[in-house]
Design brief:
Layout lengths: L3 H6 L2 H7 L5 H11 E3 L20 H17 L4 H4 L3 H14 L14 H21 L4 E3 L2 E2 L8 E2 L2 E3 L2 E5 L8 H15 L8 E6 L4 E6 H9 L4 H12 L11
Parallel strand pairs: 6-7
Antiparallel strand pairs: 1-8, 2-5, 3-4, 5-6, 7-8
């Protein structure tokens, strides 16, 4: 089954027609004006987490951190408390390797070295601090959104009240494909008839940065004046099109 990341990265004809103003220039300005440096919050515990020595499995470290943070939230534990609970740590690791199947060992052995494990916990702790700054009532990790057409059921990253955040634990800036991926989740949710999110954004626990913006405003600016419902209808119609040629190796 094709993934939302593939759809966001490919099908340039559809995206250029639907979002003609989502150009490299727009994305560059978006990164400049929308970025929030979380380390500037008063008395914040949030800090940047640069890639440490002997840390090579960056993707697994990031996913393990996300799973640890999700587990801690579900169990109402701080990361320091979760760290002492072997069963919860193992469950988080299994969740990470089931998502990144290339790391599955099949025998429960953690393939991360000591430095990578410690960095995973440090990154996971940043989620606690970030959520604390949001002063939110409704928090959900991995909210499910219904599939449509040739795209199956999806899981977004982090819902905080009326905002859907896509987590990007990367060293680079936000790219156009990241914005498209987020819009896919939002379109899928919109198609259910339940208007759950008015805002969207990105959170980077490694760089201690976040972005938050009005969905309506972003779509209006990048589509050349379309309404949110119009753009989302275009996305859902595209996903349901039987004439789409899946010419990418998945």
């Amino acid at each position: 089954m094709i993934s939302e990341k593939n759809i966001a990265s490919e099908f340039k004809g559809f995206w250029s027609e639907s979002l003609p103003l989502l150009t490299p220039s727009f994305v560059r300005v978006f990164n400049e004006v929308s970025l929030i440096d979380l380390t500037e919050y008063h008395q914040t515990k949030i800090r940047r987490v640069p890639i440490g020595p002997q840390v090579e499995k960056h993707d697994l470290v990031a996913e393990f951190a996300f799973q640890l943070a999700m587990r801690a939230h579900e169990k109402s534990l701080w990361i320091d408390e979760l760290k002492l609970d072997k069963s919860n740590v193992e469950a988080a690791y299994i969740g990470a390797t089931s998502f990144l199947k290339k790391y599955e060992a099949g025998n429960g052995v953690i393939v991360l070295n000591e430095n990578e494990v410690e960095e995973s916990f440090t990154l996971a702790e940043q989620y606690d601090y970030f959520i604390e700054t949001r002063k939110a009532d409704d928090i959900e990790f991995s909210p499910q959104v219904a599939g449509a057409g040739f795209l199956g059921l999806c899981k977004a990253d982090l819902s905080i009240d009326e905002t859907l955040y896509e987590v990007k634990t990367v060293s680079r800036n936000i790219a156009g494909k990241d914005i498209k991926q987020l819009l896919i989740y939002l379109a899928l949710q919109h198609s259910t008839g339940r208007q759950r999110w008015k805002y969207a954004g990105f959170y980077n626990p490694r760089k201690a940065q976040c972005y938050r913006f009005s969905i309506d405003h972003l779509i209006y600016r990048t589509s050349g004046g379309k309404s949110t419902s119009e753009l989302f209808s275009d996305v859902i119609d595209f996903l349901g099109s039987r004439g789409v040629e899946l010419d990418t190796a998945f």
